[in-house]
Amino acid sequence: MSTTRAGSRWIRADLRARKAQAVLTVLAVAGIVAALITAATLLEEGTNPWRSLSAQTDGAHVWLYTDDSPDVSLSGIDGVSQVAGPYRSVPVTVAQDGKKEPAALRAMPATPPKVAHPVVAEGRWLDPAQPDGVVVERSFARTLRLRVGAPFTIIALSGGRHTLYVRGIADTAEQGFYPQWTPGLAYVLPVMLDRIEPMLGRSEWVTGLRLADPDATQVVSQRVVVMLEDKLQRVYTWREVRAAMELDNRLLGTLLGLFGVVGLVAAALALANAAGGRVLTQLRDLATLKSLGFTRGQVALLLLVEHGALGLLGVAAGAVAGWGVMALMLGGTSVAPGPVLAIVGGTALVVLAAVGLPAWRGGRTPPIPDAPTAPPRGRLSRLARLALLVRLPPALVLGTRDAFTRRMPAFLTAFGLAVPMMMITIGLGVWATLDDFADHPEQVGQHASLYVRPGKLEPAEARRIAERDPDVAAVYPGTEVNALAPGEARSVRVRAIGASARPYPFPVVEGRTYGRPGEAVAGQGLLDLLGVRIGDRVRLTVGGTPLIVRVVGRTIEPDLDGEVLSVGLDSLAAKDSVPPEFYALALKPGADTGEVRGRLLAESAESLDVQAAVNPADRLSIIRVIIVALIAVLALLGLANLLTASALGLRDHAFDLAVLKAMGLTPRQVTATLVTGTGLLVVLGVGVGAAAGMSVVTSLIDLQGHTSGVGAGIGRAPTALTLTVAVTGVVGTALAVALIPARRAARAQVPVTSR
Amino acid sequence: MTSVVKTVNLVKIYQDGAVPVPAVRGVDLQVEPGEFVAVMGPSGSGKSTLVHMLGGLDTRTSGEIWLDGKRVDTLSESAWALLRRKRIGFVFQFFNLVANMTVGDNVELPALLAGASPKVARERRESLLAALNLTDRAEAAPAQLSGGEQQRVALARALANQPSLLLADEPTGNLDSRNTRDVLRLLGKVHKEGQTIVMVTHDARVASLADRVVSLFDGEIVDDGRIARRRTGTAGEVIDLR
Known about the structure:
Chain A is α+β, with helices and mostly antiparallel strands. Helix content of chain A is 52%, strand content 19%. In chain A, helix 6 runs parallel beside helix 18.
């Protein structure tokens, strides 16, 4: 009790004396914790929507699409516990705010089924009393900005327009979120569907199978493939739905997680360095405390409490900030308490461990306050001797010598700056990669920037209009079909585009592009999915017709997790490829996408459906915000380190200053000596950090690309100019920060005896 | 009456690399309650080491230390710390005030540490600062004070718990003559009030204030003599006479 009072008074006094440093420490730790919590929540949120939606909707595990009602008993398959459907589904186009979005209209009864029943989030479910009602899947509704009660205009394949009214907005676990997963989904009553699309031939049938064991999807879907044979259009399982739902957030979460973990290491270093530096500058005060009657353990505890409390305060602030940001962004319930608690607990432990060592060291201070606590005086370091040899100014030589007199703090300072600098370099690399996506879309598989669907026009007419436009450089006819991969029991996307003789210019990073019918290129995701390598043959089934191609190259494939096989249009059977579904338009350099789109629409009297390609960089633009925020946090960490180093340097040289002045050094030279001592470590740390960052950045981004299916080959290092600016900026700021206390110290009247 | 402090064949040997450097070589010293002992000697004679050992700031190599009739040389570092809180006050050459704390807090710290309530600590601090004529500097930082003022604060801090032994290591070594006089006058005053003091100094004039002068040379006591003189008046007057 007595020591608590005395100790708390000492802690208060010490914190008052170094407010700025204390605030900086709290901010740095808070920033890291907030980043970690954001990362964990995004990761958790990335994997969770499917899990929770599936639980809420009693979702099916396998979905199959057939061109006729499957007349076999699917519920008889081993492992299938319940069956949803079959429901009739027709493709339509939704016209909303002048835009046209593809949608599937699904017939559902007024009483929701037991299995795979959509969960109404807003409004009500379908009601026979209001046959013009429609329930829209939530992500689709959000993209279209639909509210309950809004009109919902659809255009059937026959061209007929129908206006329905949104009665409800519902969640479902049967497909991914729009627009990553198309078409969008909407439910109507069967009577309404019959009215919209009386032709049974233009519809397909959707059946969901709920399995006793969700891991048995492979076996069950293979049975389905065998049983339904030609009737089967495509099959997909809950794994694909889950993967589709988590795509973007997972990338973000991984990035944040990486920054967060490395940032935590950097924060631990900064804390240890700050606490250690403070202890070193306070050795005399600590000795005095011991001479007054503080025991070794009490001094250690005092330091642990003081520095630990700063860290823990940072942890708490970061937790609140991270939780707040996530609650604002995703809604209050989205933040899982488990990971947050784990992060708070983990970082608290790291904080205590980081300050524990300096605290223990401080506790071991001998209690004789007058004993000199000078730094170990060594010989001139090799570097300093070299500096002398080449006749550098004396201030530089002395500074060089000073930089390394204390080995451990010198190492901590340099390393503590190198880690944030490495992360900054990696962040800049991610930025450069995004820039590259935006500036050179052709390098990420988006050579064409407009996609034209004939709509009401004849395909040949559509092509003519497109080719006539002065800004269109090339027109590639194309079609996308779903193909069944044998043994995989799931469908993959086959994109037929261009002719084998005139291939679409895919960014092929391995092998070569397709050159004749029967050759194909694939994204990393597809290669991983089918377990094939370049040179292997792949056998797929497209609507009953076999498609056998040899994979001759790997492309950068940003769509559908890279699970796309691209072939020439002539590789596909005529029934699938004539007429082409769309035309991909490559524009001339400098052409404006919007302008061309407007012209094409005007030319065709609004009959063409013209869509601009969505650049992956646009989807990932939030990453840029995160990079800026993280660089700010990392800069804080670096600054905290720097202040420690500079304070330590001053303390070690308080005595020397008078001597240096007596020897005839001008105040400016004294300043230069002090700044050199800190600056050398800064240059060293920043240099090493930037070099380390440069050496790993491309492979790190490529690794991320590989695991996300896009494929390696997208990684870009920051340009030499960016890096030079960053390094110069960091070193310049560091020197400026070191200069202020150094100038003050050099001008101060230092009594020789103040030790 | 038991001695306040007693040493028996006290030895301290520093280990400088492989070479043993004896600092104190078999010192037998006995200080009675109320006594004012000055320890003199040239630099390197071991006088600072001796008082550091008496206060437990440094460990002895061999020999015994008795404090108020109890043997203390066998105590652990922590037990020494607890002992110092109530029984020993220290004054150092360079004052050693805690730089971040105000003058008032510096004086209150030992009282709080010894278990006094904040209220009692505050009262004690006020009376001490008033006695030392420092009441108006209570909220100042130590760095704003002159050397003499700092040393007076250090003295107030050392006396905060009415220790049985006040150890002073060159308390005037860093002061000009006017401040030296002020500090010595205070030491004389507390001595007159019955405080036992052991003071290290190499200044004969300062030593002459004491009842008894112990001379050390190369770690051994070479002379131990009482100053046989009836004390009149305060230390200040003694100095003034010279």
